[in-house]
Amino acid sequence: MLDDAIRKAAVLVEAMSYIRAFRNRIFVVKFGGAAMESPEILDQVLVDVAFLESVGIRPVLVHGGGPAISAAMKAAGKEPRFVRGHRVTDEETLRIAREVLADRINADICGRLKAAGGQPVPIADGSDGALRAERKLSEFTNEDGTIEKVDLGLVGRMTGADTERFHNLCRQGLVPVVAPLATGPSGEVLNVNADMVAGFLAAAVDAEKAVFLSDTHGILTDPNDAASFAESIDEALLEALIEKGVIDGGMLPKVEACIAALDGGVRKAHIVDGRIKHSLLLEIFTDKGVGTQILK
Which pLDDT tens digit goes with each residue over 31-88? Predict the structure, then answer.
């Protein structure tokens, strides 16, 4: 029993230097996937976030909600449409997305975070200018090397954020909980990829870290070899892995968001398996960590 107590004390001592170094610094944390689908995992993540707040770190949460949006569309008799993995968003799809993201997911996260001891503030309206975006045509490279441009509808590319608002909330010890909805040039609401929101926002608010909680255990330099897990990797190698097609699918937007954050001045980005209990704290407050840290 005494040995257990000593081990716990050693963990606290190991965390102390990190707590000192990161006090009053902003961490942008993005989560989705399994963390969104399992109430138990979601509550574990939010306990970690409340802990960050309690030791003087300033977390900003960004959440997704793709599977829940697709389920709500099907329940309404509307079949989701995707072009090479990207959701086509017409006005009806956007209406459903806003209802799911703001009224259901964001509200639920805020309630759970408050129950965990945090002080959440919803940033979920999409029309108030907290996040700003422009409509974009997505470009895809065909097998023959030609570029195809596809209009995905009311889908946006991040262009700005009300950084003063985010800084003021963080200084007050509040936790912004951000849905991936942004205000367009004419006041319209646009649906934005949540990973890209997190990467852009981390750079905009001068965050110390951007942490992406995913359904995978960090980055493998060889997808067929579990032993190729990278505890630390730099941006140049990441871009080479993207070029070779090693990083693709659902991992690609996370990695691109990490690169965007680093290019914007964020010191480190992390991709961590959110299914591991307290993975957020283990990655931040221990010497070894449990995911992949990405450096400029």
Answer: 886 567 788 999 999 999 999 999 999 999 999 998 899 999 999 999 998 876 678 8
Distances (CA, A) of 233 to 258, 282, 293: 11, 18, 6
Compute the distance between CA of residue 162 and CA of residue 164 in angstroms, rounded to an integer: 6
The amino acid at residue 62 is: V
Evaluate if pTM is beyond 0.85: yes
pLDDT in tens, 255-267: 889 999 999 999 9
- DSSP-assigned letter for residue 207: -
Cα–Cα–Cα angle for 111, 114, 118, rounded to 5 degrees = 140
What fold characterizes domain 29-215+248-295?
Answer: Carbamate kinase (3.40.1160)
What one-character DSSP code corresponds to residue 68? H
| Residue 264 C-alpha from the chain's centroid | 16
205 Cβ contact list (under 8 Å, min separation 6) = 26, 28, 60, 161, 163, 166, 167, 170
Instruction: Name the one residue in this structure whose structure tokens are 């646009």.
Output: 190
Contact assessment for residue 129 and residue 183, using Cβ atoms and an 8 Å cutoff: yes
Q: Return the axis-axis angle of helices 194-204 and 251-263, rounded to nearest 10°.
A: 10
Q: Which two tokens stand for residue 86?
A: 């990207």
DSSP secondary structure code for residue 227 in this structure: G
